[in-house]
Amino acid sequence: MPGMQQGLVISHNQVNRDMFELEFIAPEIAEECQPGQFIHIKPGLRDQPLLRRPLSIYDVDKRLGSVTLLYKVVGTGTRLLTSVRTKEYVDVMGPLGRGFKLPDQPERILLVGGGVGIAPLVYLARVLEEQGCDITVLHGTESRRQLVAFEKLRQIGTDFFPATMDGTAGYKGLVTELLLKKIEPKKLDRIYTCGPEPMMAVVAEFAANHNIEAEVSLEEYMACGVGACLGCARKLKTNDTQYVKVCKDGPVFNIKEVELYK
Ligand SMILES: Cc1cc2nc3c(=O)[nH]c(=O)nc-3n(C[C@H](O)[C@H](O)[C@H](O)COP(=O)(O)OP(=O)(O)OC[C@H]3O[C@@H](n4cnc5c(N)ncnc54)[C@H](O)[C@@H]3O)c2cc1C
Ligand code: FES
């Protein structure tokens, strides 16, 4: 059951020009977290902005009872969040949504993240590693400064391959080019992806061409976060007659169910 809590902030660090890592203690939330779910966080303790902001569960330490979020500053809410200090409290609700479906047995897994879309894939990698999976990660960013999850993913024990547009780390160019050049589909059982839609569209095509199971985490504007307001309603395919609520039916969906735009 999702809970609403005041999480005690134990660290809040700026990890590059516009990205922050925020860790808070909320044992009941930490205990429940599944990879791919999200936390609905109130950016400030005042009334404005009224709406919470959805942020993926980036990492969890169940022993400590802590949850870590990774966020990029894009507007009012995320900018306000940057002013929270260590030892202060954040108003958090969660864990919310339907997360990634985990394999029943150890598998060969590919994670493809674009930009801050790497966030839900890190806790996923941790849980998959505990299950004995063999994990390869491709992360595409503008430059090496945005490869903020590298250290965590290395410690977890994944094979990590970056792609940067400016060539400052790893492959120079799009992460989807790296995918097509580097990854041998026959050596894969499953793919999980999160990032810009054009990137995920190429991943979807790759998965379909090689008949590989894949899931995608979608981003949508959200208000209530719990399926009550229709604020996040979306048709998964243009010819669908029904809408899904991304906050409750997702944010993770089977990639075959979703139409992604290049
Ligand atoms: C399930 C889910 C998980 C997410 N996880 C993360 C995460 O781990 N880290 C992270 O940095 N961000 C994540 N996001 C996106 C994050 O919620 C938005 O960036 C944030 O709500 C913006 O709030 P703001 O007040 O700063 O920006 P606003 O002032 O509300 O908007 C600023 C700009 O961001 C755009 N924007 C705002 N919300 C969204 C959205 N949901 N989708 C696409 N564009 C949006 C607006 O169009 C505008 O251009 C996630 C979104 C969803 C739905
Ligand atoms: S945000 Fe209210 S129904 Fe999804």
Structure description:
- Helix content is 21%, strand content 33%.
- The protein is an alpha/beta fold and 262 residues long.
- It folds into two domains: 94 residues, Beta Barrel (Elongation Factor Tu (Ef-tu), domain 3), CATH 2.40.30; 150 residues, Nucleotide-binding domain of ferredoxin-NADP reductase (FNR) module (Rossmann fold, 3-Layer(aba) Sandwich).
- Strands 4-3-7-1-2-6-5 form a seven-stranded antiparallel β-sheet. Strands 11-10-9-8-12-13-16 form a seven-stranded mixed β-sheet, with helices on both faces.
- A hairpin with a 4-residue loop joins β5 and β6.
- The termini are far apart.
- The model has no long low-confidence stretch (mean pLDDT 95).
- It binds flavin-adenine dinucleotide and FE2/S2 (inorganic) cluster (FES).
Indicate the topology.
Elements: E1 3-16, E2 19-25, H1 27-32, E3 38-41, E4 53-56, E5 59-61, E6 66-72, H2 76-81, E7 89-96, E8 108-114, H3 119-130, E9 134-141, H4 150-156, E10 159-164, E11 171-172, H5 175-182, E12 190-194, H6 197-209, E13 213-217, E14 233-234, E15 244-245, H7 246-249, E16 252-254
Parallel strand pairs: 8-9, 8-12, 9-10, 10-11, 12-13
Antiparallel strand pairs: 1-2, 1-7, 2-6, 3-4, 3-7, 5-6, 13-16, 14-15
Helix pairs in contact: 5-6
The chain binds flavin-adenine dinucleotide and FE2/S2 (inorganic) cluster.
FE2/S2 (inorganic) cluster is lined by residues 222-225, 227-232, 245, 247.
